[in-house]
Amino acid sequence: MNAAWLPLTALATSLLVVVIIFALPEEARRLRTTINLVAAVVKIILVMLMVRRVAAGHEDIFSFQVIGGVDFVLRSDALGVMFAGLSSLLWLCTTVYAIGYLEGSANRKRFFGFFSLCVASTIGIALADNLFTFLIFYEMLTLSTYPLVVHNGTQKALDAGRVYLRYTLSAGVVLLLGAVLLYTLTGDQSFSSEEGLGDYLNDHRGLLTLIFALLVGGLAVKAAMVPLHGWLPRAMVAPAPVSALLHAVAVVKAGAFGILRVVYDLFGIELSVELGVITVLAVAASITIIYGSLRAIAQEELKPRLAFSTVSQVSYVILGIGIFGPFGTVGALAHLLHQGLMKVTLFFCAGNYAEELGIHRIDEMDGAGKRMPLTSIAFTIGALGMIGLPPVAGFITKWYLGVGAIQAGMYWIVAVLVASSTLNAIYFLPIVHRLWFRLGPSHGKGSWPKEQRLGRLETHGWLLWPMVFTALVSLGAGLFAGLPFSPLDWAARVANGEYLP
Amino acid sequence: MIWRFGLFDSTFEPLASTHWALLAALGLPLLLGLFAALFSPKRALPVALASLPVLASGVVLLAAFEQAGLLRWQWEIAGIHLSLRLNGLSVLLLLMTQVIGVAAALYTPGYLRLSETGPLARWLWPLMGVVLSALSLIWLATDLLTLYIALELMGLAAVGMLMLSGKVPAIVAGMRYLLLALVGSLTYLLGVALILGHWGRLDLQGLAEVIEPGPVAWFAAALIGAGLALKAALFPLHAWLTPVHENAWTPVSALHAALVIKASLFMLLQLWSILLPETFYAPRVIAWLGMLAIVWGGLLAWRTDSLKTLVASSTVAQLGYLMVAFPLLLGPDIAPLPRALAWEGFWLQLMGHAFAKAAMFMAAGNLILATGESTLKGLAGTSRRLPLSLLVFGIASITLMGLPPSAGFTAKWMLLQAMIITQQWWAVAALLTGTLLTAAYVFRMFRYSFDETAPRHRYQPLAPGMDMIALTLALIAFALGLLAHYPLELMHGGSP
């Protein structure tokens, strides 16, 4: 039985919210908040329904014809609902956080409207079943994030927006060219088709390689792979919830997810290996991982350090693709979720330090653990996870990537992993040390840059609880990785589908 | 190629009800326009009621076409055979004309009330009626004489509308436009005279059978082509376009950029497909000029400081996309698949641009009307106060950029596919460059509007519905992109 309404409704809930938010007046704050939260919860329920249907072996399809030979198709498959789940869960958290963060500031209608559009695009990206549909939502994501990046309207924000557009729109053009070339060669290719493009290998080897380069090159910009990462650190001028969304779910992940789709579902892993592009991906990812970490060490402000850490961490997903074998794939897929959870926590923390204490630079963080214990615990969990220490989720990823690399005989990847973990420790541990072991303003030494008492607890409740929640989930994803429906379990299910016919 | 324009004999006689629908589609805009000159409507409601029968006539014709395929009406007046035909393409273009025409008419009362338009404003209505009637005739006509009459009527009425504001720059720009339009018509007429003298007939279907390639056909095609290219503002004959739009009233600009220049382009393609079928050089020249148009129009729009010039220059670039497709439509040895793709992409692009450009002019007009500023810098900080106008501008510009999910995107997709199959890599490069250039000038405007440090101005509130009309047009351009299958299917219908 095909429940076509399910993927359609999952997409339509967020789109409908966009329309309603734009139709409401700026002052209707309570109503807007209510609609936002209700829709976010409804969306989680819908995605959970989809997960259950996919687990039971149903893949629901909604489609219609756009032009001859090109269809618009939404399909809920295992990989898709995984990303949809991440997106809907973190939408709820970031929405709650954003409501608290933007309390009393201007242009909230515009902000939440485009915020919801951004999330709707990620759901579309997750459920798209062919390259054409994927492209629609991918570009929609580009456009809907621009107003969020420039939200503050300062010179710096507007400049960052311009850089962001330069990178992403040029990438979109490259991607479009690749997509049209592919359609001209092969016609409409569903992501669910079993064959992949193997039939075309003998006659069109060069063209296939070119198409792969165009598609992955276009996607790598959003995935912030070196040297196409320049927009990401600049986009940090956006408000904290936007950074959290950009780094954890929406933009960066959309790029990585797109590369996953292209390699596993469009070309097929065997063909990608045959073309020799997999190794190139692994090398590019390794360079990005090391370069991102090195740049992160050099940053003196908290948010840019986290931004470069994202550059580095997202490429673990790409690295996992580059390791041929189920373990590498499991590591890649699991990291898509794990990195999202941990990174969103870290950004929430950074936003809280900035809002409550006015902290932007790392050397201002001395002793903040005493003043903001929950935030600092959450930050510590996120940081340890990023380094890859058990039992936080990040450990699972690195373990699987390492095992995969050894099985595939790619020992240099193990070296990359070790080097990267060391570098991660070098830029995260000093912060943790400052938080807990240095004496600071809360011990009577100096004062905070700009302290506000936002709530009864250490900060405003709307800012605090989403962060606590995501920190707990990051911890839980590592501790209970063996349970059914954990990120790891689901990643293994997707990988099984990929390697076992 | 000829059959695509419906120049063949029909299978069924049109029913009596379609006669009335035809009469209404051709005559009602004119009549209603005259009526409105006498009783100038102050609100949008009477306009809406009056436009219902016009839209109904379009729907009846659509239904008739879906039932019977190609429709053809024939008369004999004083020994001259006249005929009108309605194929899938004409139905689509007719409906597009009616929808955009009605939208412009609905927009007009509010606009006239809020801006200081002077005593001549009431004459806008009959001129608008003439333009819409003449346009409908151009989509249906099948002989060179009727086409000439309709073209001339449309051109003169358009000049009249553009000069109505009575300001000196508007008059100067209008006079220049008049002069060029007359030169264009005269050149066209010369070509027609040449055809009449040599082959002794003017009906397109008959001409298609007798015309053979040779110096006469080439010379006639060159004359007709030059005349129509001038009227369609094809690069490099576009210089008159921006000053005209700079000073015109908003609904006039919307009608002109969306429909009037498209009519000349439609005629150009139709006549060349008769005079120059399967030619190599002429369409190539147009395509090369089109590439230049994309770049030049984009640069003009990028460098300008005036919002209206930005919107008008973007028309030059967008016409370039259409010009680039000429070799695929008219060139020799094009396989059926790329030709069909290019044909569909061409019209989808044309229709998408028409809706989006009309919406964009209205949105720009709203912004200018509300702020009293017409420069990009003057619009700084508008996102806070005029979010809806800005949103409409944004949605319309997505179509112009050719990003999904818009008609511009789907059309670009099809054109790219056709160009890749025929390996026209230069054209591919031009289309992709066009996307980036469009994004560059559109986001330049948004960059200003998001500026939060700008000083606050007092804003004049807009009449209700002025934004919604523009929004509807912009959303139609979106719907055309996602649901392109249905209109494109219509264009296949009624083939022999």
TrEMBL record, chain A:
Segments traversing the membrane: 6-25, 37-55, 78-99, 111-138, 164-186, 207-232, 244-263, 275-294, 314-337, 374-397, 409-429, 462-483
Primary location recorded for the protein, binned into one broad class: membrane
Residue stretches making up the NADH:quinone oxidoreductase/Mrp antiporter transmembrane domain: 128-421
Keyword Transmembrane helix assigned: yes
InterPro entries linked: CPA3_Na-H_Antiporter_D (IPR050586), ND/Mrp_TM (IPR001750)
Membrane topology label: Multi-pass membrane protein
The entry's keywords: Cell membrane, Membrane, Transmembrane, Transmembrane helix
Compartment(s) of residence: Cell membrane; Membrane
Keyword set includes Cell membrane: yes
Homology family: Belongs to the CPA3 antiporters (TC 2.A.63) subunit D family.
The protein, known as: Monovalent cation/H+ antiporter subunit D family protein
From TrEMBL, chain B:
Superkingdom as given in the UniProt entry: Bacteria
Keyword Transmembrane helix found: yes
Subcellular location: Cell membrane; Membrane
Similarity section: Belongs to the CPA3 antiporters (TC 2.A.63) subunit D family.
Transmembrane residue ranges: 20-40, 47-65, 85-108, 120-141, 147-165, 177-196, 216-241, 253-275, 281-302, 309-330, 350-369, 390-411, 423-443, 464-486
Nucleotide-binding as UniProt keyword: no
Keywords: Cell membrane, Membrane, Transmembrane, Transmembrane helix
Domain NADH:quinone oxidoreductase/Mrp antiporter transmembrane intervals: 141-438
Protein name listed in UniProt: NADH-ubiquinone oxidoreductase
Source species: Vreelandella neptunia
InterPro entries: CPA3_Na-H_Antiporter_D, ND/Mrp_TM
Topology versus the membrane: Multi-pass membrane protein
PANTHER family according to UniProt: NA(+)_H(+) ANTIPORTER SUBUNIT D1 (PTHR42703:SF1), NADH DEHYDROGENASE (PTHR42703)
